[in-house]
Amino acid sequence: MIRRPRERFGPAAAVLVVALLLVTVVGTWPPLVAVESGSMEPSVERGDLVVVTAVDRFPWGDPVGSDATNPPTRLDGAGDVVVYTSPVDPRRPILHRVAFRVTAGEDWTDRADPDLLEGADCTDIATCPAPYDGYVTYGDANGEYDQTAGIAPIVHEELVHAKALFSIPYLGFLQLGVDAAIARFGVVPAGVGIVATVSLVSGTGAFLVGRVREGWRTRNDRKGGRRPPR
């Protein structure tokens, strides 16, 4: 069966349009984040797809920590979950929960959860006192703060580029697969392969749906005493 280009590439174009609309609404790129690790389990698991929005997008404000009087509820926990770029490894954004905001020169261990300090005090932590204004963060499944575990220093507000809204189970594996393909083959070859795969899958799906419809139509015609069209 020969399909016209519009029919072949229509689904891929539709996906692109939806992606552009989503970026317009949430105000950040990428608007979807695939979770690569289990640091936020059980609220977010590896392979989940998290929908995020820009921090300054209405009606949001600055990230709110879990220590707030009435903290927002994000991903089955108290406090905002943010995506930030760690200076330790800028290639891999981190999706973790905000514990509280700190100011430059503050001994923030006075406000910290002792269970997450692992017995450390301010003299044991490289980023205490806080060298600048920012945020102390942690993964729900981790036993300590990012700043005491060496995952990241105090998270400067300029490094926080998105807030998490909600997660979709398992769909993140698709994005992880795309990222792996880009890392291995490059952007252009991977993009061509993805478009070809989407077109092939959509074409096969349309063909199968057409055959099923044709079968049902033929069956109904026979029941009604009519000959199926030749």
From TrEMBL:
Species this protein is from: Halorubrum aquaticum
MF term (GO), any: serine-type endopeptidase activity
The entry's keywords: Membrane, Transmembrane, Transmembrane helix
Record-linked SUPFAM superfamilies: LexA/Signal peptidase (SSF51306)
Lineage per the UniProt record: Archaea, Methanobacteriati, Methanobacteriota, Stenosarchaea group, Halobacteria
Subcellular location, record wording: Membrane
Peptidase S26 domain ranges (all copies): 14-98
Matching Gene3D superfamilies: Umud Fragment, subunit A
Record's keyword annotation contains Membrane: yes
GO cellular component, one term: membrane
Protein name per UniProt: Signal peptidase, endoplasmic reticulum-type
Keyword Transmembrane helix found: yes
